[in-house]
Amino acid sequence: MTIAAVDYDGLIPNNVALGQDVRVKRALEKWHPGYINWWKDMGPEGFQESLVYLRTAVSVDPKGWAKFDYVRMPEYRWGVLLAPQMEGRKIPFGRHKGEDAWQEVPGEYRAMLRRLIVIQGDTEPASVEQQRHLGKTAPSLYDLRNLFQVNVEEGRHLWAMVYLLQKYFGTDGREEAEALLQRRSGDADTPRMLGAFNEKTPDWLSFFMFTYFTDRDGKMQLEALAQSGFDPLSRTCRFMLTEEAHHMFVGETGVTRVIQRTCEAMKEAGITDPYDIAKVRQLGVIDLPTIQKKANLHFSLTLDLFGNEISTNAANAFHAGIKGRYRENRLDDDHQLESNTYPVLRLIDGKIQNEDAPALSALNMRLRDDYVADCNVGVGRWNKVIESFGIPFEIKLPHVAFHRHIGEFSKIKADVRGNVLSDAEWSNQRGDYLPSDEDRDFIESLMQPQYEAGKFASWIAPPKVGIDNKPGEFEYVKIA
Ligand SMILES: [Fe+2]
Ligand SMILES: [Fe+2]
Question: What ligand has the least distance to the C-alpha of 236?
Answer without folding.
Answer: 1
